[in-house]
Design a protein that fits this description.
Elements: E1 17-21, E2 24-28, E3 45-49, E4 54-57, E5 76-83, E6 86-94, E7 98-99, E8 103-107, E9 112-115, E10 127-128, E11 131-135, E12 138-142, E13 145-146, E14 151-152, E15 156-160, E16 165-169, H1 171-182
Antiparallel strand pairs: 1-2, 2-3, 3-4, 5-6, 6-7, 6-8, 8-9, 10-13, 11-12, 12-15, 13-14, 15-16
């Protein structure tokens, strides 16, 4: 294993989200001081080929394209997880709309976005700076900064892909479990 320096044409971003699938690394959105986040524009996707060591940028859908209405807006502080060969994007914010609580799906084969249909009334409030991971058929989302309370969260939510529904695990229960798991000798 070794480091490679100076790969050209890559995105210059912070607070982006990335995921790997096959021989590619997909980088979604993020913050760059050269872009205007007070405008609502579709999120960008940069793809890195691990064999050619080249980046390329997928074209964004134009307003007259039906994909425009289901593509997430440009954002930073969001998360990406890979589940069944698709990317799922949740959360994040931009300077115009604030944070978002919609769950989006990107299919890398068709290069199409969709908005995930939710069963039930519960959806976590939008946040940014959280973390997310997949365990079995669930996407767990922890922490982040909540726009509506202007506070950092220690809540744990999960999205059940089989039921297409969100659930909350209260932070006191989660903290107690962490103590049990990590505080013994």
């Amino acid at each position: 294993m070794y480091w490679i320096q100076c790969i050209e044409n890559g995105p210059r971003r912070v607070n982006h989200a990335a995921g790997a699938l096959d021989d590619f690394i997909y980088s979604f959105g993020g913050y760059s001081d050269t872009e205007d986040y007070t405008q609502v524009t579709p999120i960008d996707i940069h793809i890195f080929n691990i064999h050619t060591l080249k980046w390329y940028l997928l074209p964004k859908p134009q307003r007259n394209n039906p994909q425009y209405n289901v593509t997430p807006f440009s954002r930073y502080g969001h998360t990406i997880v890979v589940y069944k060969r698709k990317f799922y994007l949740w959360g994040g914010r931009n300077d115009y709309l604030g944070s978002c609580n919609r769950l989006f799906c990107f299919d890398p084969r068709s290069r199409q976005w969709s908005i995930v249909s939710i069963v039930g009334d519960f959806v976590p409030a939008g946040c940014d700076g959280h973390s997310a991971c997949i365990i079995n058929d669930r996407m767990y989302v922890f922490g982040g900064f909540e726009d509506h309370t202007q506070q950092f969260s220690n809540d744990l939510f999960y999205f059940d892909f089989n039921k297409s529904s969100w659930h909350c695990r209260h932070s006191k229960v989660f903290s107690f479990i962490l103590i049990i798991l990590f505080d013994y000798k």
